[in-house]
Sequence to fold (404 residues):
Amino acid sequence: MYQIQKEKLNQTIDSLRELEIDMWLILTSEGSDPCIPLITGVGTVGPGVFIITKEGRKLALCSSIDAQDLEESELFDEVCKHTGSLETLLVETVRKVNPRNIALNISVEEHLADGLTAGRYRWLKNTLKGVFNGEFVSSEPFLTLIRSIKSKTEIERIEKAVKVTERIYKRVFTKMKAGMTERELGTLFIAEMERENVVNGVDRSLSLPIVLKENIAHRGPGEAVIHEGDLVIFDFSVEVDGYVSDIARTVYFLKEGETEVPEPIKAAFSAVHEAITRAALMMKPGVKGYEVDGAARNYYVSLGYPEITHATGHQIGRDVHDGGILLGPRWKRYGNAPYGELKEGMVFTIEPTLFLENGIHFIVEENVVVTSNGIRYLSERQDELILISNNRKVGEEILEKIPD
Fold:
């Protein structure tokens, strides 16, 4: 039941040893710290503390009401119960461990490593001032990597979410036709999520995906009517066993009598496909995020197309935007995220968007995992533009090309 947490705790101990950090201390209440689902999988109702040391000790300090769940998880070497004074128990524990430094979940740039509130930070410093004279450091360097580098079980779950997403896409595409609104197209996904017994990976509910004919932005579907000759973007995610996919597809609604798309649209799709290829070929351990982004970005510029307006890709895992390294440009708004190095086990999207002034717009988003010498596609690549026809026979023949 706690297989992922066991894998993550092992990663944690390795990281603490590598960085020479004696202790990681997680102070939480009501599961308040965002790292809790990943690291322990068990929250606390009352104030509690999780401690991991570089020697491999795993301790849980909690109230008696929380002890049973923590003991049954079998994640900890010792579950220490207090009877009303966490402060006393924490001081005794820190005195026994006698760390030179303590990592806390405080971070300026990474919100997923910033779970310790200002008030709890002040309480902690005051509580330990008589027993700890060492240095408090940020957990960001290793917590970001622990979240970013997926374990075998995590990759299996992401891949499962990807396959469910692709099945839903294929069935939904057979039901689309010109004359429907963005919202009506989005509603098709709801029925398929219910059929697969999954929810949207963005908000963990049976909510609509992004469907965009016009007014391209990060928004829900509206009442715009789809006409023959339109390009429509779909951006969709599902959650499976706590992990998510993130796949976007752009489709073209054929005009009556058409069997192919107009040449400018065909050329734009070809450029997007090649930009994804170039980004993917750059991806291997040791390469920096901005170098991957540059491969796609510079290709568009060489064709006379506009620059991508955001990052080429991001990490996925427990969330659609899973923090960590970004496949993005060295823009101030992205901070240090594009400077991080790719490592084996990281899972990314690749989505070099293309928005042209003539109304042609494309988002094709693939999911990949970094391997020891490159990447492996978790999603089936969209190698051809998906065509939707009100002539069901034509549409079904085209859709046979889409992988199951």
Summary: The chain has two domains: 3-147, 149-399. The mean pLDDT is 93.
